[in-house]
Amino acid sequence: MSETILITGASGQLGRIVLDQVLASGKVAPASVIAASRDPSKLAAYAEKGVQVRKVDFDDPAALPAAFAGADRILIVSTDALGEPGKRLAQHKAAVEAAASAGAKRILYTSMPQPDDSAVTFAGDHLGTENAIKATGLAYTIFRNGWYMENLFMALPHALQTGQWHSASGNGRIAHVARRDVGEAIAAGLLASDGESRTYTLTGAAARTTEEIAAAASRATGRPLRVVHVTDAELAGGLKAAGLPDFLVPTVVSFDTNTREGKIAMATGDVEALTGHKPTSLEDFLSENAQALQA
Ligand SMILES: NC(=O)c1ccc[n+]([C@@H]2O[C@H](COP(=O)([O-])OP(=O)(O)OC[C@H]3O[C@@H](n4cnc5c(N)ncnc54)[C@H](OP(=O)(O)O)[C@@H]3O)[C@@H](O)[C@H]2O)c1
Prior knowledge:
The protein is an alpha/beta fold. The chain has helices at 13-25, 44-48, 64-68, 87-101, 123-135, 152-162, 179-191, 210-221, 232-241, 249-260, 270-275, 282-288, 290-293, and strands spanning 5-7, 33-37, 52-55, 73-76, 106-111, 139-145, 164-167, 173-174, 198-202, 208-209, 226-229. The protein is built from 13 helices and eleven strands.
């Protein structure tokens, strides 16, 4: 490929997988890859491989057009700025505007499933960013990332310890997807040669209820695990008591509301279509992580 690729958030967990996959593909020379981070020192090993390393901080909009200069395809990895309402969307909009003014040919973005119909508190950040990208008139690829299997580390260790998983998800389903599969799929989409604008929803192969996930976790670890169905308010109370920062409580509760309302129940074939292989199964993920989940 002759185009230059820029990846923001390249030192993050997802960004690094995408960067590694892009380089491992051999489809693009390291010199045509720009790895960007707020802290370029975290990417020193990539600079040694010939990758261009640049400082990119969406909180410094004035510096962004120069930082994006020469990039044909720009992957904007969504940030983790959830603490201050409105901040994340402002960050993303600054990145989109700078990508367009720097002359990018395609903008790629990590969104979430059906942000236009979601109970998740931050869905508006993703919908607003998708709309800002579409408004540029440039070609785009939107990766609506399903919930990572790794998110199960938020609830399962405590649940396995106590034998009880407090959930407000009811009988709603989620097709969790391994972060690695998401990263591989995004790398493939970043390297794709077709000129169309695309929206992918990256999920695991099968959507399961919390009870089905609990049963699978129990099989993988040999520990009994029962789902205790609670209301949103009860879940919020439990999360507060467990010490979750106040600003995160409504967000974490909204994940369960969203699941219960069937808004994240989709299971697509998009990971396999992009990577050429089936996504990691929940059973494989749980057995590979059985020890860590009990630590
Ligand atoms: N689908 C899911 O289940 C799920 C779960 C968790 C998060 N997410 C979303 O997916 C994104 C990537 O996930 P991850 O697992 O890689 O999380 P992570 O390791 O916590 O990465 C956070 C990312 O945000 C970037 N970032 C933060 N502030 C920034 C700023 N001011 N300007 C530019 N970039 C900034 C970081 O880049 P640098 O540090 O390199 O600057 C880093 O790549 C998260 O940020 C979040 O939006 C999705």
